[in-house]
UniProtKB/TrEMBL annotation:
Domain of life: Bacteria
Residue ranges of domain EAL in the record: 24-286
Name under which the protein is recorded: Diguanylate cyclase/phosphodiesterase with PAS/PAC sensor(S)
Length: 288
């Protein structure tokens, strides 16, 4: 028998369990206390207009400032938080923090109309209480609804019942923007896409990876380029805007602009960074 960290829960000792599994459950066991101790931080990554280079939004990306492991990325704990259900509380905390920061930016730089884009896990989106959670985050922080975007994956949109979530209509009625994250990598149900109140498609990294300039090495992958071209046309035909994720080079940004993508996000435009770095960037952009 082995006692799981902290909680007084007991797990059966299994010699087949790998060290990685054990590390994983230790990390999971530490999540609730970490939230109570305030060890999570939200970083923000610029989402930039491909037309004029201005920052029009930022995506909120959570990190865990772990006392021993340092800054731990969400890929290592969001899945665990979803499994344990903690994602509901953690997600609400991220939403509040993001709305507070966005409200402060809006106060200092009202002309920037900077949108904050917050990821919603399937489990959060599937809970009808999400509408009240979002409404109260907006009213408590005073952030105008149109400055909040919520990102859902294709599978989250479809919900556990296999039908598009009713909550999406109620969220859209609040006035927030809805985006489909990692579009094209999940279960893209185009039938529902035409009826849902979606505002933006975020094209997943793998498609953007193949987009390069003609002289680049490796050369562009024309199939990726045709997929992006087709998805942008589809999005625009449905009056949705398109954000390309994982833009890593200037050539990619240029090519994506030629393909009529509206906005880009990725290392080329700036990595995820603490809120004060976004403030500094807004200061630079608005005094130019
Ligand atoms: P995502 O929503 O698709 O976020 C984009 C990811 O791409 C981020 O990873 C970002 O750091 C990364 N990225 C930024 N620039 C580049 C680039 O130039 N190239 C490439 N290849 N990637 C780039 P990150 O921060 O590790 O987050 C991973 C995922 O964790 C996110 O993917 C999102 O699904 C999830 N996540 C992050 N924060 C939250 C949250 O607060 N709630 C929920 N439910 N999920 C979150
Ligand atoms: Mg996202
Ligand atoms: Mg994404
Ligand atoms: Mg993702």
């Amino acid at each position: 028998w082995a006692k799981a960290e902290g909680r007084g829960r007991w797990a059966v000792y299994d010699p087949e369990r790998s060290a990685a599994d054990i590390a994983r459950s230790a990390l999971a066991a530490g999540l609730p206390a970490a939230l109570d101790r305030g060890e999570f931080v939200v970083h923000y990554q610029p989402i930039v207009s491909l037309l004029d280079g201005s920052m029009i939004a930022v995506e909120a990306l959570v990190r865990w400032a772990h006392p021993e492991l340092g800054l731990v990325g969400p890929d290592r704990f969001i899945g665990l938080a979803e499994e344990t259900g903690l994602i509901v509380r953690l997600g609400e905390w991220v939403l509040r923090q993001a709305c507070r920061d966005a409200r402060a930016w809006h106060r200092e730089f009202p002309g920037a109309k900077l949108v904050v884009s917050v990821n919603l896990a399937a489990r959060q989106a599937d809970d009808p209480a999400i509408v009240d959670t979002v409404a109260s985050a907006l009213s408590r922080t005073g952030l105008p609804a149109e400055l909040l975007q919520l990102e859902l994956t294709e599978s989250a949109v479809m919900g556990t019942a296999g039908e598009p979530l009713r909550s999406l209509y109620r969220l859209a009625d609040l006035g927030v923007r809805l985006a489909i994250d990692d579009f094209g990598t999940g279960y893209s149900n185009l039938v529902y896409l035409r009826r849902l109140p979606i505002h933006c498609l975020k094209l997943a990294g793998p498609f953007v990876e193949g987009i390069r300039g003609a002289g680049d090495d490796p050369p562009p992958d024309h199939r990726d380029e045709r997929i992006v071209d087709a998805l942008v046309r589809l999005a625009h035909a449905l009056e949705l805007s398109v954000t390309a994720e994982a833009v890593e080079t200037g050539e990619q940004a240029e090519r994506l602009r030629a393909l009529r993508c509206d906005t880009g996000q990725g290392r080329w435009f700036g990595p995820p960074a603490p809120a004060d770095q976004i403030t500094a960037r807004l200061r630079g952009e608005t005094t130019e």
